[in-house]
Structure formats: C-alpha cells, structure tokens
UniProtKB/TrEMBL annotation:
Coiled coil: none annotated. This is Response regulator transcription factor. Residues 131-196 form the HTH luxR-type domain. Transmembrane segments: none annotated. It holds the Pfam family GerE. It comes from the Bacteria. InterPro entries: CheY-like_superfamily, Sig_transdc_resp-reg_C-effctor, Tscrpt_reg_LuxR_C, WalR-like. Keywords: DNA-binding.
Length: 205
C-alpha cells in the first residue's frame, strides 16, 4: 500500500527534502494537490509558520473531500500550540526536526486514524497523542523475525523455526526494516539489541 502525501506551503527546499525522506522510507509518494481529484491525497502536510492569522489553507485542506487527513508540518513546534492546532479535522502536529524514520512512523499512525504529536510535547495537551515507539509499530511476526536475525540465523533458518515460507520471511524483513528505518542486516541486529527486541521475544517464546 502506498500512502500519498502532499505538501501545502513551505519552500522548495523543504518539499525536496520531504520527497527525499519519503523515497528513502518506501511505501510513500509525494503527490500533487492540484491532481487530487484524480489521485486523492492520503495526508496533506501544511506549513503554518509565518502565515497570516487569516490564512485558510489548513481549514480548506481539512474540509477537502479529496484529502483524507491533514497534519501541520512546521519548524514552530511548540507545546502551547497543540490544543489550537489539533482541531477541526487536523490529525497531526509534526516538527520538521523529525528524522525520516520518525516521520514515517508519524505518517503511518495518522493514516491509521490516530492523532499524532511528534516529537512528543510535555503538558496535558499532548497526552495520549505521542507517536508509538518503533517496537510498538512492529507486528508480532516482524518482532520475532528481527529477534531471530539478531541471533545470527539465516533467512532459511528463520523460515524453518517460524514454520513459514522463505518469501514470508523476506516480506516481514522488508516491512520491519521500513518501519524501523534500517537498510541492512547489521543495522537490524544493532537496532534489535538496542531496543531489547531479541531479549523480549526469545524470553516470551
């Protein structure tokens, strides 16, 4: 499944940076709002920093039937603004300081219908809306696959141990890598050990 993202506002540099991040993540594409009637936008990112008080871009995007979800994407990521941002159909308040992996997790959560503040902000306005951790974003099968990778097992060995096909193992690896933002087996091993996935899964097996 491809999640179509569009950028409203912001300069060309931000747009190109966003496109590069989405390309690195996989599973996303940068669409055009002008083409939304033919290819609807899953998530529109709206820059509100520096806009006038009477700017209606955010409200119009939230009301557009060809835009499924809307999130603010800004450098002006401040706790005091959360309550006034996450209203009237706006589902996310995202800072431009996010890494590609963090942005990917935030966008997937928004696409799934969650209200997301990322990076998480202190205070009552942000409670219950932080991006799920990378471990929480993984399915049980993806976590198990990463746990076995961390023990040094090959794909064939993982398939036998999990009693699934080799193609299924490869599919879990691809989806897990995409979610945690790694591109190699050695990076996956380091990530699994750092996040306690290996210990958690093998102890609970």
């Amino acid at each position: 499944m491809i999640i179509r993202v569009a950028m409203l506002g912001g300069d060309e540099l931000v747009r190109r940076g966003l496109e590069s991040m989405l390309r690195t993540l996989g599973g996303f594409e940068l669409g055009s709002v002008k083409d939304r009637m033919r290819a609807p936008i899953d998530i529109a990112l709206v820059e509100t920093y520096g806009t006038s008080l009477d700017d209606t871009t955010l409200a119009r995007a939230a009301a557009d039937p060809f835009i499924h979800r809307v999130a603010v994407f800004t450098w002006n990521h401040h706790p005091g603004l959360v309550d006034e941002v996450l209203v009237n159909g706006v589902a996310g308040y995202l800072g431009k300081s996010l890494t590609a992996a963090q942005l990917g997790r935030a966008l997937r959560s928004i696409h799934e219908g969650q209200a997301v503040v990322a990076p998480p902000l202190p205070g009552p306005g942000a409670q219950g809306m932080a991006v799920p951790s990378e471990v929480d974003m993984l399915t049980a099968r993806e976590r198990e696959t990463l746990a076995l990778i961390a023990t040094g097992r090959s794909n064939d060995e993982i398939a036998r141990e999990m009693r699934i096909s080799l193609n299924s193992v490869k599919s879990y690896i691809r989806s897990a890598y995409r979610k945690i933002g790694v591109q190699s087996r050695s990076q996956a091993v380091l990530w699994a050990v750092t996040h306690g996935v290996r210990v958690e899964v093998l102890e609970n097996a």
